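Allow me, if you will, to draw on your knowledge of protein folds for a short while. I have a record of one protein: its chain in single-letter code and its fold written as discrete structure tokens. The full record is reproduced below for your convenience:
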Amino acid sequence: MDVTSSGAEVVPEKIEDKKDGDLTFHCNLSDTEIVHKIAQEFLPGLASACVDNTTGDIFRTPGSVAVGIRTEMVEYLTKRSETFVAESVILEGTDQAEVSDHPYDIISDFVDDFALSKRNLFSRVSGWTSSEKREDRIDDFLQEMEISGFWSIDRREAIAHILLKNVDFKNEFHCNMKFNSEKELNEHMLHCGFISMICPNEGCNAKFSAGHLEKHDSVCPFKIIPCEQKCPDTLMRRDMDRHCITVCQMKLANCPFYAVGCQSTIPQCMIQQHRHDDLRSHLLYILQKLHRDKPLKVLKNWVEELEKVSQCTIATFLFVWAMNSVAVVIM
């Protein structure tokens, strides 16, 4: 195959509106993410069209027709997008009217229609379109075009931007503001919700319109946020799950005396406090484990006696240490 990045490419012409003889200044911004998503559909559609158009032809390859078919594709998409609103009015009230009005879906359908129109006779009658070999050839040719830089993403996005404006009749994905002077336009563009920006979080290269900053920020994996379990640490959102189940001070853990009966789950950083606060119950659990034949009332009396013995700090420390040692042996 002989795909190269050379060859003239048709880009839809942008026509400036004039009002009362004066140039009207348009905000030329649109939803960055949708434009990029639309642009990504062009290359697979072109690959399908080129492969299906040359299948069974011993004189032509997908690469030899790529430049010409690309030109036809841009012209086709432009014409369809320009007449889309009129077509929608005609189809209103029919079964065909029940389709998505999202620009991405609309233009994706245009791409599919174009690719279908480029199938040659062999492709249409041979069952080729349902074969795995066809899919493999399309994937191979698509990869070849991507590697060679045949149709750069920037050039595709420039076309996608114009197509989007043509079909976005609800003005949901592009700015339709107009101004009487370049100064007014420039002031508007500083604050336009469609101005393109890159995520400010370090490590994230996501590109989107400014109006989507809050939405992206709420899910950005590189956003530094406080620990969900309320420990003092702050970390990237993408590391949160691992942090919470490994090193987080507030990770829930079983009481050290779980094996002898204490069913409490407490944050790791509060285990010592729990031991101190529940000395009496922990001691009772241990005694119940060691003296299964003794009545509960007797064991409780023993606990009271031990508490009287352990009045000073040193005695309390030794008591806690002794309890822990017994717990380890029992577990």
In short: The first helix runs from residue 32 to 54.
